[in-house]
């Protein structure tokens, strides 16, 4: 990871935060973005000079272009983009509001598209790079009450599949990360609740990201599925 330049969205807490810190500890230069400015700056402060915080909303094209440009201005290149920003709404279909649908899709799907789109011209010009999408195991399955969230993850899955075919001729890797249950703020009961003691930790996911991103240039991990041992799949 020595001096690699990596952009991570949704990096103010949870998987994004843990990944940013671990990559920085391993020698990467990390540009992070999220809407929570205070938490984002706290992660930057912990990065010992290797983390640059750029507050922004992944659903804003202008914001994502600014994140990418900041990485280029500071470091002159981009080696990887980790699309991690996302959240869940879990309701029966008739209880989902139009605003909830639009807002979640804007973050989970449009956000992945916009950050990836902003970085692609640079990655293609370099003839190298890595795009990671933190999806979920529910990109492969559905459940009652999960229509909105699973639809967003299936959309990410389709986006990755087409993108992978587009960019491999440019030697750009695309990796889908499909996690099971993770003990984070994603869940309604919050991080550290007793009911999630057997879940994966954000640090487990960060270790997975480090492994994926540190493979040699000729190796691409197309899909990476990870679960806590107590979760059925």
TrEMBL record:
<keyword id="KW-0560">Oxidoreductase</keyword>
<keyword id="KW-0521">NADP</keyword>
<protein>
    <submittedName>
        <fullName>SDR family oxidoreductase</fullName>
    </submittedName>
</protein>
<dbReference type="InterPro" id="IPR057326">
    <property type="entry name" value="KR_dom"/>
</dbReference>
<comment type="similarity">
    <text>Belongs to the short-chain dehydrogenases/reductases (SDR) family.</text>
</comment>
<dbReference type="InterPro" id="IPR002347">
    <property type="entry name" value="SDR_fam"/>
</dbReference>
<dbReference type="GO" id="GO:0016616">
    <property type="term" value="F:oxidoreductase activity, acting on the CH-OH group of donors, NAD or NADP as acceptor"/>
</dbReference>
<dbReference type="InterPro" id="IPR036291">
    <property type="entry name" value="NAD(P)-bd_dom_sf"/>
</dbReference>
<dbReference type="Pfam" id="PF00106">
    <property type="entry name" value="adh_short"/>
</dbReference>
<feature type="domain" description="Ketoreductase">
    <location>
        <begin position="4"/>
        <end position="185"/>
    </location>
</feature>
């Amino acid at each position: 990871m020595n001096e690699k330049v990596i952009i991570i969205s949704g990096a103010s807490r949870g998987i994004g935060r843990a990944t940013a810190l671990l990559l920085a500890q391993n020698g990467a230069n990390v540009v992070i973005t999220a809407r929570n400015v205070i938490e984002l700056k706290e992660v930057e402060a912990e990065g010992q000079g290797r983390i640059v915080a750029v507050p922004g909303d992944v659903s804003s094209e202008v914001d994502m272009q600014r994140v990418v440009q900041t990485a280029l201005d500071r470091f002159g290149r981009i080696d990887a983009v980790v699309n991690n920003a996302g959240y869940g709404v879990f309701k029966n279909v008739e209880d989902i509001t139009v605003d909830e649908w639009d807002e979640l899709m804007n973050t989970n799907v449009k956000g992945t598209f916009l950050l990836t789109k902003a970085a692609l011209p640079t990655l293609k010009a370099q003839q190298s790079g890595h795009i990671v999408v933190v999806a979920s195991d529910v990109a492969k399955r559905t459940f009652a009450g999960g229509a909105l969230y699973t639809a967003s993850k299936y959309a990410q899955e389709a986006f990755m599949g087409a993108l992978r075919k587009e960019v491999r001729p440019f030697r750009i890797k695309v990796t889908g990360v499909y996690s099971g249950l993770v003990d984070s703020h994603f869940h309604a009961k919050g991080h550290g609740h007793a009911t999630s003691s057997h879940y994966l930790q954000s640090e487990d996911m960060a270790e997975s990201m480090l492994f994926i991103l540190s493979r040699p240039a000729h190796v691409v991990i197309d899909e990476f599925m990870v679960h806590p041992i107590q979760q059925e799949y």
